[in-house]
Amino acid sequence: MYIIDEEGFHSILCILREQGYTTIGPKVHNGAIVYDEIAGINDLPRGWIDEQGPGSYSLNQNDGQSMFGYVVGPHSWKKFLFPQRKQLFSVTRHQPDFGFSDSPDPVAPVPKYAFVGVRACELQAIAIQDRVFCSNGFIDSMYSSLRSDAFILAENCTRAGGNCFCVSMNTGPKVGAGFDIALTEITADSELRFVLEVGSKKGEAILEQIPHDTARPEDVARAEAAVRSAAEHMGKALDTTNIKQLLYDNSEHPVWDDVAKRCLSCANCTMVCPTCFCSTVEDTTDLTGDHAERSRRWDSCFTVDFAKVAGGNFRSSTKSRYRQWMTHKLASWIDQFGTSGCVGCGRCITWCPVGIDITEEVRAIRGKSAHLPVQSGSSE
Question: Which of 61, 137, 242, 344 could share a disulfide with 166, CB 3.0–4.6 Å?
Fold first, then answer.
């Protein structure tokens, strides 16, 4: 373990940019923490914290020095590794023979990303999408090219959000494998510092170029205590005991009818989820008919047309679509990819307009109390 100060952290970002990386990290935009290009530590959301609940998100600024006091926002790293829209090819018709030829846009170099502030749950989400796009002999070339050069600068969580349940999913709050450098914010001698752990040769090469010291035992203890505190203050919990069989055995549970009455089928949960990967192919032409493009864009199993086939729509009801999403995420994903599709980030709870809570739906299927009515009258 090593210790660096703010200058050392800024140096890491500068070195990454000098090496050709596009540094992507958290910043405040339109009232939320989003992931976008950053030039240095001054772009980070120093002193900002988020408050989250079911269907609720707000940002508040305090006098603290923390650059990573927030939890997670509406963006996930799949925005960059699995872009929302990607052109597959384009064709142009040439007169007079009407022959078609490929005429894609000039090939731009594949971005080399450095992701700054990746949380433990997000690191696990990237690992899950790696299995989806780069395993079992099926390689998505777009994803693979972006993923292979990515530099991961992870950040251990020292604060849990109101909808976090990563402890239940064994995905955090401390980062595991898959990072190049991992940091933990601490305050030592009234100064903000970072306990640093190296996870790869790329990380070692960066460390050699920045001012650093060996972390003192008290610094390591302070970092471990902060992460432990986050683990002890999770906003939510999800009982995963035999969860796959639980959902398989309860496909007709009345909970599905109950949630269907509240669900808007807006697809927010799938758009903000860091592991959802549904997509569709879209063809467009210009008004002359001389130019056409084919693109891949994000889609969602919540949209009405997603399950439409020649013989009809096999998920025409909101009930069937929500059941498909949750059962896939927590059960059949395990059969497909050997792991749960949920990392406990809580985004689907926060950004659901009506506050549907996946942990409460599982609790209800288990027969435990959920959706308790609000008590009116005296609060004494």
Answer: 344
